[in-house]
Q: What sequence folds into this?
């Protein structure tokens, strides 16, 4: 648990880092979490924070706000987790004169506010923009309470909510956020591995009597491209298996009924395979073996 003096000292250090960029005529963007109370960071908070930093960096690039990630600063101190990065260039500036710089900074602040409001964690996020002179760009909008619709400063002043209620609410949202993003990562990773496995298998050449890059071997109804077509058709279904494993991990351990649901996806995959290969069986065995592997690995990760 951090002491108030330590938190204030950490915040002062963050201000100095912002001013160091301003001395080089660089505006900056920072990200932190609004965590009430003395406990500002732990494993869950930091993991959610690191995920959010990656999202913010992609968001800024998509909005044509160029940052210098090599000069970014990441801190984990008494005030919690902190990310600071200088703005190198923005396509929103019209020219290099002062008025247009001010307009560009306002636009950047508005864009960052949209990131906050559209993000799953919303109110927990605090994305600040400081201009080239070291001045914070304010939206003038009041922050709202985590638990009710009142402005946050009113709830703080009147002590409407206990710290434990606030922290439990925040931790619940952070855990849900992490679970959702871990699931999406697992879907992407295992789907990629499954697709790679099928591509590597058919690409292995030569394979006497079997289909490879050089010929169809003893098969007259399929060739190398039949396998490519089938692999492409099956690729979206591996993530469905991961989702099924996640769903099953949240409920009772009724493996028999779980197996029936998994079999349904396998049957659908076989139907799709035949539709894209003109009725030829290219991957029926792989659907079973790789499908079971994906399911088991995904469930172990849940």
A:
């Amino acid at each position: 648990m951090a002491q108030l003096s330590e938190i204030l000292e950490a915040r002062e250090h963050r201000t100095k880092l912002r001013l160091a960029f301003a001395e080089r005529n660089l505006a900056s963007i920072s990200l932190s979490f609004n965590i009430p109370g003395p406990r500002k960071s732990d494993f869950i908070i930091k993991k959610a924070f690191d995920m959010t930093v990656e999202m913010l960096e992609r968001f800024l690039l998509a909005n044509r706000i160029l940052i210098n990630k090599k000069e970014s600063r990441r801190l984990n101190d008494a005030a919690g987790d902190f990310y600071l990065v200088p703005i190198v260039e923005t396509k929103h500036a019209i020219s290099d004169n002062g008025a247009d710089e001010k307009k560009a900074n306002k636009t950047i602040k508005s864009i960052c506010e949209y990131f906050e409001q559209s993000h799953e964690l919303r109110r927990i996020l605090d994305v600040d923009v400081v201009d080239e002179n070291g001045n914070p760009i304010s939206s003038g909008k009041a922050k709202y309470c985590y638990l009710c619709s009142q402005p946050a400063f009113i709830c703080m002043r009147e002590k409407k909510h206990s710290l434990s209620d606030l922290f439990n609410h925040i931790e619940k949202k952070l855990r849900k956020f992490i679970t959702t993003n871990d699931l999406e990562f697992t879907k992407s990773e295992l789907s990629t591995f499954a697709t790679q496995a099928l591509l590597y298998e058919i690409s292995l050449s030569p394979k006497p009597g079997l289909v490879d890059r050089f010929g169809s071997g003893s098969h007259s109804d399929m060739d190398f491209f039949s396998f490519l077509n089938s692999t492409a058709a099956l690729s979206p279904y591996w993530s469905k298996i991961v989702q099924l494993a996640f769903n099953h991990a949240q409920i009772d351990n009724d493996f028999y009924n779980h197996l029936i649901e998994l079999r349904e996806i396998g049957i659908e995959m076989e139907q799709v395979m035949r539709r894209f290969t003109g009725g030829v069986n290219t991957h029926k065995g792989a659907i079973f073996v790789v499908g079971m592997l994906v399911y088991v690995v995904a469930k172990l990760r849940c």
